[in-house]
């Protein structure tokens, strides 16, 4: 496909950034204390009740109890419409996000922030599983909407709304006190890296299936 090398290079560079950030978190976490604290203070403010309710609502879409439900629902709709590669792309990234979180968090074992948590969370903090899952899965939907809707105002609007949701989700994890800003940044970078590495192969697979009449 066109620009395959560009996607792989971009993904590899983002993956390198994640490794560098992870190295600092693992061996020199004190170097990030000032940066994390300043951003936390700016985002959290005085924790108004209305904003807290909104942030809890946003973050709930990526909670382990809710996430598989809407992903399976969307994947089922895609499959019914004979968008087979899109359905499997979404399901594959759901599984990938879950496996990576279990593996990577145990490598870094970063404790969660020692500040007030507005939701209950267990386990380690780095990287943010919500940020990784949101970037991978909502990012997958951005790719699918761009391919299916083409280049028009509706397509751009859908992509902008989906990208805005990712941003709000990242902010919600810091606001709720369960992640450092560098945790959500790491999840975003890793998800972005994986999407770029996956995309050329997914796009080729999708083209082949359409050419062979295996999907619309």
Automatic annotation (TrEMBL):
Alphabetized Pfam families for the sequence: PAP2
Domain of life, source organism: Bacteria
Domain Phosphatidic acid phosphatase type 2/haloperoxidase: residue ranges: 87-199
Transmembrane spans: 7-25, 61-80, 87-104, 124-144, 156-178, 184-202
SUPFAM superfamilies: Acid phosphatase/Vanadium-dependent haloperoxidase
Keywords carried by this UniProt record: Membrane, Transmembrane, Transmembrane helix
InterPro entries: PAP2/HPO, PAP2/HPO_sf
Protein name: Phosphatase PAP2 family protein
Organism annotation: Streptococcus oricebi
